Each structure stands twice: as structure tokens, then as C-alpha cells.
Amino acid sequence: MAFQDRFDFPGTSAGRRRFLMTALAGGLTVAHAPRMFAGSDFWNKEDPSAWTEEEIGMLTSKSPWARAAVPTFKGADDPTGASGHRTGMRIASETVIVRWESAQPILDALKAALSPDFAGHYVVSVTNLPGSEAPRRGRGGEMPPDDVLDRMQGGATLHAKGKDAAEAGVARRSRIGSVLFGFSKDYLRLTPGDRDIVFKLDTGQLVLSAKFDAKDMNYRGKLAV
Q1: Whether 188 contacts 159, CB under 8 Å
Q2: Tens of pLDDT along 65-116?
Q3: Which residues of the chain have pLDDT under 70?
Q4: C-alpha closest to that of 157 among 98, 205, 95
Q5: Would you give the DSSP letter of residue 190?
Q6: Hey, which residues does 158 pair with through a beta bridge?
Q7: Of 89, 97, 184, 210, which cross-links 127 as Cys (Cβ 3.0–4.6 Å)?
């Protein structure tokens, strides 16, 4: 399946697609997460074919593989282009979701393959990031250089406690505006014993981070990253 179709959901109704797109954008489903995850790890108890839309929404927006993050603006320039945001102020107008796209439960939930560009990589996505919009086409229809994407790739790192950080070797955009970062497994080998696995994005204008724990990222008896 092509990368551009990563967030299409074949065989589903329009209502299901709207629900999952809302979940991917980190909307209402995040607010309901405590009720869903109270003492439940359905992903290890049920076959993916039995997962409900709400469960899929929870898995992809707040779970061991998906975390909410709040960006902090560091410079005078606000990448959102909005007024009223001061330097260094933590922005919570939208929920930014950081998610392990390469983790098997996420792949099973979305029923879509990653781009071949990400082979041999851990893949982490960021959704709803302020100022991450793709550049518009020029007057002749050509796409200008994507300087924003290049800057984000240069500022994305992944590391685990006691191990050197890996820099993003690949960065791509999705159809819904998410940015996917690939980190080579040759430079960072994650194990079930790893703690404080941190994804960090520092663009020079804003910084955000999300922390994960390998002991929680267990899927069918294996580490799923």
C-alpha cells in the first residue's frame, strides 16, 4: 500500500473513517482515555479483528504507543502564525500526538503498511504539530523546497536511558498532515529492558518530547516498537 494511503481505511464505512480520523487528530477520544484504559489491555486480550472503533481510537491516541505532548515555543517567531502566543509559553490549544507507527499494534489497528522508505527504522509520527503544514504549490504547479520538513528532521531524536541518541534519517508527511520520522535500528537497538525511551523534536522555534517505557509496550508477548 502506498505511503499516501497510509491513513485510508479500506472496507470501512464513512462513519468509521471519520471516527478514526478524529482519533488520529487527538480529539475527543483522548479525553475519554482514562475510562477506556482502566485496568484493560484489550490489545493483548482480543484479536485485532474484534477491536471496536473506540478501542482503536484509544490505541492510536493514548496508549503505551501514543502520547499527548505540549510544544513549547522558544523563539520570538510563533510557527502557528497566531497572535497572543508569547515566547516560551506552553501551547495547549491543540493536542499533539506522538505515536509509534512502526509498532505492530498500531499497524494492526490502522491496517496500512508503511512506506518502503522506512524499512529497518523505528517510525514515530507527530500529529497536530503547529506550523508543520506542507508548502503550497507555486504558480506553475511545482512544489517549493520543504524547508520546514528538513528542519524538523534535523531536530528529531530518539534515545533510551543509557544509550546514545539516534537522529532521524527519514522524514515524510502523511495525507492528514502528520509528520513521520524514521530512526535506523542500526544506530539504536531497543530491548524489553529499556526505560525512558524519549522522542524529542527541537526545531529551533519549538521543542516537544514524549516519553515511553518498553515494559509497557508489550504486544503478544513481544516488545512492539
Answers
A1: yes
A2: 999 999 998 765 544 444 334 445 555 456 899 999 999 999 999 998 999 9
A3: 1-39, 75-94, 132-145
A4: 98
A5: -
A6: 166, 199
A7: 97
DSSP string, 30-65: HHTHHHHHTT--GGGTS-GGG--HHHHHHHHHSBTT
For the chain, the residue count is 225
* Cβ atoms of 106 and 59 closer than 8 Å: yes
Residue 197: CB atoms within 10 A of its CB come to 22
Look up residue 188 and give its three cell numbers. Answer: 539504536
The dihedral through the CA atoms of 211, 157, 221, 44 has a sign that is positive
Burial class (CB in 10 A: 0-12, 13-18, 19+), 48: middle
Rg of the Cα atoms in the chain? 17
Instruction: Report the amino acid identity of residue 18.
Output: R
Could you say which DSSP state residue 109 is in?
Answer: H
Cell 470501512: give the residue.
Answer: 12
Name the packing angle between helices 53-61 and 14-24 (round to 10°). Answer: 20
The dihedral region occupied by 196, where left means phi > 0, alpha psi between -120 and 50, and beta the remainder, is: left
In sequence order, what DSSP letters do the residues of 192-216 get, joined into one string? TT---EEEEEE-SSEEEEEEE-GGG
Side-chain-side CA neighbours of residue 73 (13 Å): 20
| Cα–Cα distance measured from residue 51 to residue 54, given in angstroms and rounded to the nearest whole number | 8
